[in-house]
Amino acid sequence: MIADGGSTDNTRKIVNTLSEKDKRVKLVHNPDKFQSFALNKMIDQAEGDIFLRADGHCMYQDDYIEKSVEILLKTKARNAGGAQRYVAETPIQAGIAIAVKSFLGNGGAKYMDEKYEGYADTVFLGCFWTADLREIEGFSTKNRTNQDSELNLRLAEVFGKSIYVSPEIKSWYYPRECYVRLFTQYFRYGRGRFLTKLLHPNSSPIRGLIPFLFICFLIVYGTADIISGSNYYFPEFVALLMLIVLIESLRVVIKTNVRFKKEIWKSESEPPGIFSKWIHVMVSVVIMQIGHFSGFLYQLVKKITVRNENW
């Protein structure tokens, strides 16, 4: 099944053409547009025992389905998936793809480690048992983003340790192509993380709070330094943080440089140099943190002021 939220390209035409040749191919209309609504519509219509998720903006290894089902059966997990690998066609995408390989860009999430194998709190995309998804009532429509992490937390709460990450399951994600869209994406991530925290106050991973708490600390620290009349060394502390970002960004650029052209760069044009990647990694890391903080703060203020705990 292919869910379409009103695309303006030839997606619907292509799917309908394929459906005429193979009745197993179905087009699911999603007037609500967001992923959680589309996924729930597909869960309702699913006829098989296994429900495998494959999003757009990605490419998949030829054995993606085979490996996903194999790992699901072998591990007896409730959801099996691979790491979130990134590929790029532009220098900005390259910066994002490298930035997420740093702790500053991924917060230590296990599913972002391409070599990790074992249980985790969430996974990229995933392969599920349809009956499980129906039992927990599908994806939360309160979350327009982070709905996958929220669902995996529910799976773990109901079935115990159940989310398995395998390096044998391979797919590659194309990140946003400009910084405005990257900020918007992480703003939405921040909103989604806040809503997930409300739904799962005890089981939500701490990494979802770190950007918000740390930037709040910086704001309080800086304000205290300004109004107190004392020197709390705030400018020096900020300079140290900038140095850490500079050094860490350069470290991941150098670490990925040898395999960059083979594993990350997917354009026929000349790949960006080390300095270009370094700059884009630094900018990406900063935008990710500010975007996430802003979205989390927005949703917090919305909850406090208008008592709205939904999107």
Question: How would you sum up this structure in a few lines?
Answer:
By secondary structure, the protein is α/β, with parallel strands linked by helices.
Helix content: 40-55%
Give the spatial strand order of the biggest sheet.
3-8-5-9-7
Q: Please state roughly what percent of the residues sit in beta strands, choosing from under 5%, 5-15%, 15-25%, 25-35%, 35-45% or over 45%.
A: 5-15%
Q: Quote the average pLDDT.
A: 94
Radius of gyration: 21 Å
The count of DSSP E runs of length 2 or more, i.e. the number of strands, is 10
Terminal CA distance: 27 Å
Topology order in helix (H) and strand (E) letters:
EHEHEEHEEHHEEHHEEHHHH
How many helix segments?
11
Largest sheet entry:
5 strands, mixed
How is this structure best described in words?
The protein is α/β, with parallel strands linked by helices and 311 residues long. 54% of the residues lie in helices and 11% in strands. A 5-stranded mixed beta sheet has the order 3-8-5-9-7. Strands 4-10-6 form a 3-stranded mixed beta sheet. A two-stranded parallel sheet has the order 1-2. Helix 1 links the parallel strand 1 and strand 2. Helix 10 packs across helix 11. The radius of gyration is 21 Å and the shape is globular. The relative contact order is 0.14. The mean pLDDT is 94.
Top keywords for this entry?
3-stranded mixed beta sheet; 311 residues; 5-stranded mixed beta sheet; 54% helix; alpha/beta; globular
Write the layout of secondary structure elements.
Elements: E1 2-4, H1 11-21, E2 27-29, H2 35-45, E3 50-53, E4 58-60, H3 64-75, E5 79-82, E6 85-86, H4 91-99, H5 103-106, E7 118-119, E8 124-129, H6 130-135, H7 147-159, E9 163-165, E10 171-173, H8 179-199, H9 210-227, H10 234-264, H11 274-306
Parallel strand pairs: 1-2, 5-9, 6-10
Antiparallel strand pairs: 3-8, 4-10, 5-8, 7-9
